[in-house]
Amino acid sequence: MAGPALLFVKQLGEGSFGSVSLYQGLRYDGTVASVAVKTSDRQHAESLFREVQILSEFKGCTRIVQCYDTRVKASLNQLNGRVEYKIPLEYAPGGSLSSFINKFKDDKLPDPMIRDFTRMLLEGLATIHAHGYVHCDLKPENILVFPSYVNNNGVWRSSFQLKISDFGLSRREGDSSWWEPSRPFAGTSIYMSPNSVSYGETEKDLDLWSLGCCVLEMYTGKRPWWHKNYEADDLMKDKEPLISSDLPLEAKLFILTCFARRTKDASRLLKHVFVGGDGRKKNTQPSHVSDKFDLQLANFIRNNVSKTQSIRVPPAATQVMPHKTIMA
């Protein structure tokens, strides 16, 4: 017998793409199941089609947020009569890395935590790049925090795991079709690399440059380019964000390596002394979602898709996922 349907709890965030909302319900064992539902309108549906296609290749990857379906579902909003496109995603109780940083004094994370978080992000990027993708929009808002608790000799200690999310702007490595001189940014401008801005290069270097910016932000509590008015010309002149003088030497060397051209990849950077090199245990085993949870999420999808009807798919979306089915 199926458990109760998942019910709307609250809206988690809203952006230019649409919104993300939290839904909850009871699993068969009585525990609470949570799911984040990402919703877009017809105009922004293309990013959802791209995201669900890419996430379907990362099932069980511990450093990538999980999607609980392989299709974008469409339904009619009874309030405004518009078609909405939805995908169900893994819910992060700790919110984004950006909101997590804001909870600390001066918006700065402690050094050991930054090193650990950087290692996790490198593991995620190594997986993404091994599949031939470039994330293109790595930033604290697109990194999710998952709290956990470990019993160590009778003492409960908290720890945190990071997962990379939001693949709506991701591209295949080498795909520069998005680039135009009037629109030179693949993702968020202040996290972009010089080559991506100047030439539209969509390579691993772009994500690693963005990672260097994220590491800076975790140390300083400030966005990259905080010291001046950011201009794309700065990147075209091969300038880089200011690296604070009070950072640990190993952190400075790591960030400079992230900013260097064509000299590294995520797998090699996992050997860097800043993240513990080969001496630290790496969490690369896949995490699996329970079958019961999957069934409950399927029930949620069915409850939110009341009628089957034909709808017109945006041409750009059909190019991204020409073999996928959508229901409304």
Outline the biggest β-sheet.
Answer: 5 strands, antiparallel
Can you count the helices? 10
What structural class is derived from the secondary structure elements? alpha+beta
Principal-axes shape call = globular
CATH architecture of the largest domain: Orthogonal Bundle
Secondary-structure element pattern, one letter each = EEEHEEHHEEEEHHHHHHH
Please bin the fraction of helical residues.
Answer: 25-40%
How would you describe the overall organization of this protein?
Keywords: ATP-binding, Kinase, Nucleotide-binding, Serine/threonine-protein kinase, Transferase. Belongs to the protein kinase superfamily. GO terms for molecular function: ATP binding; protein serine/threonine kinase activity. This protein has ten helices and nine strands. With 328 residues, it is α+β, with helices and mostly antiparallel strands. The chain folds into two domains: 116 residues, Phosphorylase Kinase, domain 1, CATH 3.30.200; 183 residues, Transferase(Phosphotransferase), domain 1 (Orthogonal Bundle), CATH 1.10.510. A five-stranded antiparallel β-sheet has the order 1-2-3-5-4, sandwiched between helices. The protein has a two-stranded antiparallel ribbon with strand order 6-9. It is globular and about 50 Å long. The C terminus is likely disordered.
